[in-house]
Specification:
α1 packs parallel to α3 and α1 crosses α8. The protein has 424 residues and is an alpha/beta fold. The protein contains 8 helices and 23 strands. A hairpin with a 2-residue loop joins β21 and β22. The chain is 26% helix and 21% strand. It is globular and about 80 Å long. GO terms for molecular function: flavin adenine dinucleotide binding; monooxygenase activity.
Length: 424
Amino acid sequence: MPTPSLKSHYSAVVIGGGQAGLSASYYLKSHGIDHVVFEKKTVAHKWKNERWDAFCLVTPNWQCQLPDHPYDGTDPHGFMVKDEILAYVDRFVKKVDAPIFEQTGVTSLEKHGGLFRLETSAGAVTADAVVIATSLYADPAIPRAGERLPEDITQIHTAAYRNADQLPDGGVIVVGSGQSGCQIAEDLHLAGRKVHLVTGNAPRCARFYRGRDVVDWLSDIGQYDITVEHGGMTKKKHDTNHYLTGRDGGRDIDLRKFALEGIALYGRMSGVAAGRMLFEPNLKANLDGADRVYNGINALIDRHIAEKGIEAPAGSPYVPVWEPEAEIAELDLKAEGITSVIWATGFSPDWSFVGLPIFDGNAYPVHRRGVTAVDGVYVLGLPWLWTWGSGRFLSVGRDAEHVVGHLAARHSAQTSSLKQSVSA
């Protein structure tokens, strides 16, 4: 898209050109507020450049609810694959037609008098308000232990993984059992590779239960509308997502079944030494914890069905199909023929450019539904910004509407005050 001319001042600046930043731009346009969007790479970069070939949605298509851009395909209960997701996002990009500067990073955001000053790679600007929509997924997080792996072992992060063919022949260790780690482990396994999966405390969820997609049940129950301020939900913003998949029409991911099929499972990685990867003795605890969440979600659905008198196929708790015989403490990488390590260890946010007092002791933004304590500064696109769907296609639009609504009211008040001072 053509790059607009950079002005010296804007009523609002949006930092980040992903789904959150574009949603903010959509609502800023609807309020008639002049603004600019700065994106340090390209629009929707992560969808286009940090997803593997077999990637697909893990939530059904009907949950794609970007502003004025709901899913309009023929399979609302299916799961779009990578090319379909990119087409959906591209249509949204064209619809919003945001005033965006791509390949333009923001290097500094500070308060100067009554305005905010932003230094960018395209020049400096000032703004009355700023929306930080950079999410938590700026940079791949790779443990320092990777520096102690033998030099002949290929190491990549999930952001760089595309398919099994890009890796050298031999065994592969996937470190991390969140959504990406489990799906990539399955992708490698289906490609005929010997896979070793290092587990963590990620929970799991059934794909289908009692005749329907679990997401449909949870939506009916109201789980996606529960706010982060609901009792016990505050900690959720740091939780790992449940693992399941939409691949081939959707199915459970059961690590115990993986083990029966030949995938080797281990407890959490504790380090690397002398050509060996070391593990904590918590594989059983990790598997049991994931299953406990799985059965807890299904029990919630059981209660809903009973309370509403809904006719549905019978359900039953999950019973483990495999148990580890022993906890493996270490793995000799060369002896096991391992040639590659894939780090499914998540991402780190980059708020280093923000010179404003909006963070808590853990360097996490303090806000209420995206509104920070610094007047005129907002955050958007974070998991559990307000509800379970925040940061996703489902609810990022609703969050953007709220944030921009607050910004617009502030803008209107400032404009009115300025007019009154001028007339006086």
